Amino acid sequence: MKKYLSAVITLLVMCFSTLTYAVTLEDLQQQFSKHKTVRANFTQDRYINGLTAPLHSSGKMIISKDLGLWWQQQTPFTMTLKMNQTRMEQSIEGQQSQIITAESQPQLFQFNHLLTAIFTADKQMLENNFEITLSEQNQQWTLTLSPKIAPLNKIFKQIILNGNIYLQTITIDDKQNDKTVIAFINHKTSPLTQHEQLLFK
Question: From residue 121, how far is each of 70, 96, 103, 161, 179 by CA, in Å?
C-alpha cells in the first residue's frame, strides 16, 4: 500500500512539475520571435472604482520586428499609436498628432517601450524591470510580472499575461485598485502588405 501511495504521489509531483515548469521565459521569447509580423484584433475593458460598468473599447494591432508596434483603437473613438525604437506617435480622431522621442521625454518613452517588451517577451527588458513568475497548465502559460523598480512599482501591482501559441490576454492591476483586461483574437502572421507598411510611416 505504501509503495502504491508513493508511486501515485511521485507521479502527481512529476505531472505537476511538468505543467508548472515546462515553459521558460527563453521559450516564450523564441516562440514569439518565430514570426516577423503578428496581427490581432483586441478588446479592452477598464474596471475603474466608482463606475458600475467597465469602459469598453476595441480595435486592432500589428507588431512588426522591423517596423515596431501599430495599435489602433477603433471604438468608441479612433486613437492610433505607432511606436518604434526611437519615437512614438499618438493621434486621436480630429486632433493633432503627439510625437514623443527618447530625447524629449525619456521616462514616458521608456514606460511605453515596455509595451513592446511585453508583446515580444523580451527576456532582458522584463527581468530588468519585473519579478517574474511563469507557469503552464493544459498547454496554457501564465506569466506574472511584478514591478520591482520605480516608477513601475508606484503605478502597477502586477501585469498578468496568458496565452498558448500567441498572447491571448493581458490583465493589468494598478495601485489604485483599478484593472484593465485586454483580450486578443484572430492572430495572423503573414508578411506585411504594402498598405500595412504605410501605416507605420
Answer: 17, 32, 25, 10, 21
146-179 tens-digit pLDDT? 999 888 888 899 999 999 989 999 999 999 999 9
Whole-number Å distance between alpha carbons of 158 and 146? 5
pLDDT tens profile 72-131 = 999 999 999 998 888 889 999 878 898 888 777 776 667 667 777 887 888 888 898 899
Q: Which three cell numbers stand for residue 22?
A: 515546462
Q: Residue 187 domain-assigned?
A: yes
Query: Is residue 14, in this structure, part of any structural domain at all?
Result: no
Residue at 4 is within a domain: no
The domain containing residue 94 runs over which residues?
23-199
For residue 201, the model assigns a pLDDT of 86
The amino acid at 39: R
CATH number for position 63:
2.50.20.10
Q: Which of 180, 178, 146, 139 is nearest to 162 (CA)?
A: 139
For residues 31 and 40, give the distance between their C-alpha atoms in angstroms, rounded to a whole number: 16
Q: Are 144 and 133 in contact (CB under 8 A)?
A: yes
